[in-house]
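Students often ask why inverse folding is considered easier than folding. One informal answer: many sequences map to the same fold, so there is more than one right answer. In these notes we will look at a single instance of the problem. The structure comes first.
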């Protein structure tokens, strides 16, 4: 089907405060999906004019927060229409974590209480065609629940093969001068980034494998659990949180995809 694309003029966009940043050679590498969040917007039950008004409101809010323009490259509305934000030729400002220069962004005009209706998908796929590359959810590149479980699950079905993505965490390599236990802990976490990719984990017995997973959850994802080698309810929920961050099914099972998520974060934080 042919997807309607509404230009900036359609929703009476304000001009940017200053020049936007064009894509560098080789970028973008794909498209990151967001949602507005907050309460239900109910735009799927309103005319398309309400979507255009919502985009104007988002631009006004973001420019009041020192953005030079609306943060997103495009918006997808529940009327099968793609709405131009910054557009296809420049970086956005929505992804965070140093990812804005690598991936374009699209915001679904839906809040946390809105259903992810089928009518969003044609606009999303049209934007994905414009930019090419990988289609990712925001939680795959930053520590957030955006764009919600339903959207993240659908994105996963659109990307059947694991993709290499930058992780939005700050490297924490210490100066060698502290030495002692601090340096030993860093080295252990650095090595765990590799060894966690392989090896069995036996549930729910107390064993080294469970302890390694718990250590990765604490040091890599800030989960407040005990590193005791016991796989209890708190550890299970921490695993699910890490899976949500990685944009994979939050089933609490430490399989190969979950190990890849744990490894990627550890390697980024403890290089």
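Output (designed amino acids):
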């Amino acid at each position: 089907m042919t997807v309607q694309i509404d230009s900036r003029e359609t929703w009476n966009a304000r001009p940017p405060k200053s020049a936007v940043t064009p894509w560098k050679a080789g970028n973008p590498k794909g498209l990151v999906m967001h949602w507005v969040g907050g309460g239900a917007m109910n735009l799927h039950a309103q005319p398309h004019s309400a979507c255009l008004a919502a985009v104007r409101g988002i631009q006004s809010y973001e420019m009041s927060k020192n953005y030079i323009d609306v943060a997103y490259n495009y918006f997808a509305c529940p009327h099968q229409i793609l709405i131009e934000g910054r557009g296809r030729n420049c970086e956005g400002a929505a992804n965070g974590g140093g990812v804005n220069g690598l991936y374009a962004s699209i915001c679904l005009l839906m809040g946390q209480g809105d259903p992810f209706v089928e009518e969003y998908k044609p606009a999303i796929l049209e934007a994905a065609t414009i930019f090419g590359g990988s289609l990712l959810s925001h939680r795959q590149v930053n520590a957030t629940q955006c764009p919600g479980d339903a959207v993240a699950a659908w994105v996963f079905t659109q990307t059947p093969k694991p993709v290499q993505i930058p992780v939005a965490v700050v490297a924490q390599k210490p100066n060698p001068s502290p030495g002692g236990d601090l340096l030993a802990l860093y080295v252990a976490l650095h090595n765990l980034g590799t060894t966690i990719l392989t090896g069995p984990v036996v549930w729910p017995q107390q064993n080294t494998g469970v302890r390694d997973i718990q250590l990765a959850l604490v040091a890599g994802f800030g989960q407040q659990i005990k590193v005791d080698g016991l796989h209890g309810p708190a550890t299970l929920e921490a695993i699910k949180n890490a899976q949500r961050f990685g944009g994979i099914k939050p089933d609490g099972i430490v399989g190969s995809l979950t190990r890849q998520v744990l490894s990627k974060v550890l390697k980024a934080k403890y290089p």
